[in-house]
Amino acid sequence: MIITLASIWICLVMQIFTLSGAIDFWLKHSTKVIKITPLPRYPMITIVVPAHNEEVVIAQTTRAILDMNYPADRVELLLYADNCADKTVDEMRRVLADPRYRSRNVKIIERTGSGAKAGVLNDALKIAHGDYIGVYDADAMPETNALYFLVRKALENPERYVAVFGRNKTRNAQQNFLTKCINQEIVVTQRIQHCGIWHLFRIGRIPGTNFIIQRQFVQEIGGWRNGALTEDTDISFKIMQTGKLIALAYNSEAFQQEPERLHDYYVQRLRWAKGNYQVVIHNFRHLFDHSNWRVKLETFYYSCTFFWFNAAIVLSDIIFLANVGFIIARFFNPYLVIPFTFGESNILIMQVLLLNWLLMIILYILQISVAMATQFGQATTRQIWLALASYFTYSQLFIVISIHAVTSVCLDALLGRNGNVWIKTKRFNN
Amino acid sequence: MVNWFFWLAMEITLIFFILVMILFVLQWIIYSRVEKTMLHYDKQHYAKGDDDWWFKRY
């Protein structure tokens, strides 16, 4: 019981530390007005869009990419219809038939190979002509200046910033309770975690979409790991290992579609969790070798989050539920002893720990509130109530997902199963 | 042991409480700065009839 509590306290220290970094970042950026000024040069960008059965969203995404505020002759677009069984290719062709886009440098490639998204990116790497490769998922609609901001950040220090990533926003945030909760989670990840960690340690994590990376550099490190469930986390570690940086262009935004049904959400997050566990296990040895300090810190952070803290939260939930169960059972048998206490008569310690829990809930809401406050008009009382509701519902779901993911990763290893089965996230027409 | 743990929990809770208070105040500072900057920009924007749609605030 004491170990569980101590683990949760350590987790809180880490969380408050990251939150403080993010707050410092936003205090410095909250009064900044950004102007779009011409760049010293416009490097050639090859944008890759891997699309596997994406007929519902691909047209919107293609148009958004082609309409971006970046010189048209400096953009090469590779649209990959990866093992498609629907009308993705027809949709791509329909958009390109528009007279506005006839002169654009766009290739549609119908692919039948393996390797999932990483396989597509590796294929694109072989034929790309750009100085940088930009990646947009088929459901990610970039904002007009998204690419401009990424390139602007990369040009600040092209030697060190080999990759630059932006933010993703939920484009179907108002659809239902689930998408509202996902939106809050994404906002916190992007505006607290990413900004805080970049500000404190100059550590960036490549997301699945809305990022650019130097083509020559990716070729040097051997490209993406074929079949990886989270190819983005995997390549982030590879980049950090070389001592180069993944810079954050916090004002580059893309609008991404999130799952609208619990089942789709569960499947997507299970894949992410499994992928992250695989990456942590794969990189765990770097904690003890002569790796780059950023790799060590990231491995430590991921290991703590995915193994130690998760285990502590699961254990604390078990203790809580067991005690609640015994309290209910006492109504029928008054002689039952509650199993996990510091002595049933010790009311004072119980009150302190209850206050502790209350503060944890306040911290959870506070970090959502800080994240919302960083953008005009988003910090509303409705978001506070939503945060409170999501603490007891949505965020508890991740405990189930993480237990499922750990079990699945262990069973994959024990039974020699192929754990890299990529299940596509369902898209919605909105 | 329980006595020792009680005082540890007490101290941690107190530090935690102070930190939450500080973070709460800082959150209001960020909120007011962001809203003020945007409203100030909007005021200028409408007064000038500015159609500089590329102008972004963060």
From TrEMBL, chain A:
SUPFAM superfamilies: Nucleotide-diphospho-sugar transferases (SSF53448). The chain crosses the membrane at residues 6-27, 300-328, 348-372, 384-406. InterPro entries: Nucleotide-diphossugar_trans (IPR029044). Keywords: Glycosyltransferase, Membrane, Transferase, Transmembrane, Transmembrane helix. GO terms for molecular function: glycosyltransferase activity. It comes from the Bacteria. Pfam families: Glyco_tranf_2_3. Belongs to the glycosyltransferase 2 family. This is Glycosyltransferase family 2 protein. It comes from Lactobacillus acetotolerans.
